[in-house]
Write a structure and sequence with these properties.
Largest sheet: 6 strands, mixed
Number of strands: 18
Distance between the termini: 69 Å
Length: about 400
């Protein structure tokens, strides 16, 4: 009887097998420039060729509603499901979020129309080269001057300057946050608490100009997914609710309008066991030579102590290379993970080692990140479940 052939030296995942986002043709960063260019806004380019111009454009971003999750739940989202053939200009295809597939990075890509290597928010937490500290780019902690960190104008600002009626309709909580200032400002911010109020006001703002660009947002699909998972009753309930919100908004669109429903990332549930959750805080091999651990469980930035970057890369690739795409900073940049180019001011924010999950695994840090380590639903990497997002369309 022949014995199985054990591979004592498994090969790491080739970096070329990572599905790099469709920067420049079909990513979140391409959406607003395409819409603005269709309204004649200077300094914008129609990058998504499948989209047709409209005088009034509304983007409804549903945090955490990935393409694969939506397609898997037609009963909970009958209206959204009916719009699937309209995605990406009637091709029935998704667009990509960008890397990493996480809220701060994606919202900056949406608002600025730039990939992460240009706008400079390349992860959930990244090292500030000026201070050496980890900066949380979602919560903006510790404080960093927003416009020094992200100096480019938003597409909303460009549209407002060009005479387009421009508005954001979201939770009042977000009105004065640094992330809003550097990614989603321009025109007028309108804070409304309930989803129904946001939909009604978004429709009103869309009708307020001959040319209009309106953005609205809903967060709790993501919130329930993180806490309970994307196959939970709580998550399904939120999907049912947001399905009704989209229909409510669609039924109020003024003439010459296009509504685009998209998301900042998808999500994947990770089991609570040692096989699927690798704790860096309890793993001496993965911790050796690491000064700071950034990013999040499925999209890590690893910052080495001086002189240890090569050793850390070797160990991380040996330990994790079958489950993660593990790259040096230069390899990740060259592969285009953060966009076609990475600006000098952004380069050192990226980890010496970058690890993006391929399998259903998570790199937690139970001591340093207790809250994040306890989440059921997670995201960040380049797998279809996380990376693909809808671009559903309703036109009048």
């Amino acid at each position: 009887m022949a014995l199985p052939a054990w591979d004592d030296d498994p090969e790491p995942l080739p970096l070329g097998s990572a599905p790099v986002p469709e920067y420049g043709a079909g990513s979140l960063a391409d959406l607003l420039p395409t819409l603005a260019a269709g309204m004649g806004v200077p300094a914008t380019t129609a990058a998504i060729p499948e989209l047709t111009p409209a005088d009034r454009n509304c983007v409804f971003l549903i945090d955490g509603l990935g393409w694969e999750q939506l397609r898997a739940h037609p009963d909970e989202a009958p209206f959204l499901t009916s719009l699937l053939p309209s995605s990406r200009g009637g091709t029935g295809r998704p667009i990509t979020a960008g890397y990493p597939a996480t809220t701060a990075t994606s919202l900056a890509s949406v608002g600025t129309g730039l990939p992460p290597g240009a706008h400079g928010l390349p992860g959930y937490t990244v090292r500030n080269p000026d201070t050496g500290e980890l900066m949380n780019q979602l919560r903006w902690n510790p404080w960093t001057e927003p416009h020094a960190w992200q100096p480019y104008p938003t597409v909303f600002q460009l549209a407002d300057r060009a005479g387009v009626h421009t508005a954001q309709v979201s939770s009042p909580t977000f009105q004065h946050t640094p992330l809003t200032k550097i990614a989603l400002s321009g025109g007028t911010f309108h804070g409304r608490l309930s989803g129904e109020e946001r939909m009604d006001l978004a429709a009103e703002q869309l009708a307020a100009g001959d040319r209009s660009l309106v953005y609205t947002y809903y967060a709790e699909v993501d919130g329930k997914g993180h806490r309970f998972g994307v196959d939970s009753d709580d998550w399904r309930g939120q999907l049912m609710y947001v399905d009704r919100l989209v229909q409510r908004l669609a039924e109020q669109l003024p003439p010459r309008s296009a509504l685009y429903v998209t998301a900042d990332h998808g999500m994947i549930d990770i089991p609570f066991d040692e096989q699927h959750r690798i704790d860096v805080d309890e793993d001496w091999e993965l911790s050796a030579g690491v000064a700071l651990l950034g990013g999040e469980g499925r999209a890590r930035h690893v910052y080495a102590v001086p002189g240890a970057a090569s050793d850390v890369l070797t160990v991380w690739r040996e330990v994790l290379g079958e489950q993660f795409w593990v790259a040096s900073r230069d390899e990740a940049v060259a592969a285009g993970w953060f966009g076609p180019a990475v600006e000098d001011r952004v380069y050192a924010r990226i980890g010496d080692v970058v690890a993006a999950a391929h399998d259903d695994v998570l790199l937690i840090a139970s001591e340093r990140e207790p809250k994040e380590s306890s989440m059921t639903g997670n995201h960040g990497s380049m797998t279809p479940a996380e990376q693909l997002v809808p671009l559903l369309e309703v036109r009048t």
